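not sure who needs this but someone in the group chat was asking about Putative NAD(P)H nitroreductase from Exiguobacterium sibiricum so here u go. i didnt clean anything up, its just raw.
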Amino acid sequence: MNTRQLILERRSVRAYTDQPVPNEMIEEILEAAIYAPTHKLREPWRFVLVNEESQERYVDQLMTLLAKRGQLDQKTDEQRQMMRQKFADVPVYLTVLYEVKGTEDQQMEDLLATAAMIQNVQLLATELGLGCCWKSGKHWFTEEYAEMIGASENERVAGIIQFGWPALIPPLKKRTAARDKLTHF
Ligand SMILES: Cc1cc2nc3c(=O)[nH]c(=O)nc-3n(C[C@H](O)[C@H](O)[C@H](O)COP(=O)(O)O)c2cc1C
C-alpha cells in the first residue's frame, strides 16, 4: 500500500476479534513510529503497553478509577458490567505519555510531535491489518489515570491507542474538501 492509500484506508476501529496481538507487533510498530519529526530531537514520548498478561488488572483498576470519580454513580449493576465488558473487549491498550518541560512553545511542539508519532502508529498498524483507535478525554486525561499508569510528575497523557484485529471496519467518514479550507495568500 502506498502512503496515500494507507492514509485513506485507516479507520478508527473500535470492535475487535478475540485473536491476541503479539507484543512484538506493537513494539515493531513503535520502533518505526518514533521516526516522526521531533524538534531538537527531544523525543518527548513514552509508552505504557497493556496486553494479554496485564489487561484484566488494567480493566479492574480503570473501573475502580471510574467509581472513585463518580462516573459509575448513576449506572445500574448491569450497565457497570456492560461498561467493564466494553473495556475488556479491547485486546491492547497503549498509553502514550509525553514529557512536559521547557517553555510553553516547546510544550506545544512536543505535544504536536507526539501527535505526529501517534498518526505514524495508526498508519503502521493499518499496514499490518491491525485495527486501532485513538482515545482521549474524560478519565484518560485525569491525574488519577496518570498515576495509575505510572506517569511521573512531568509526564502527561497524550492519548490512549487501543488495538486489536478488526471485527468491524467502519466506512470512510467523508471530510470537507481541503480546497474549501484553502486560501492562496
Ligand atoms: C485526539 C483524538 C482523540 C480521539 N478520541 C476518541 C475517543 O475518545 N473515542 C473514540 O471513539 N474516538 C476518538 N477519536 C477518533 C475519532 O473519533 C475519529 O478519528 C473520527 O471519528 C474520524 O473517524 P476515522 O478515524 O475512522 O476517520 C479521537 C481522535 C483524535 C485525533
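also The CA atoms of residues 58 and 111 lie 25 Å apart. if thats useful
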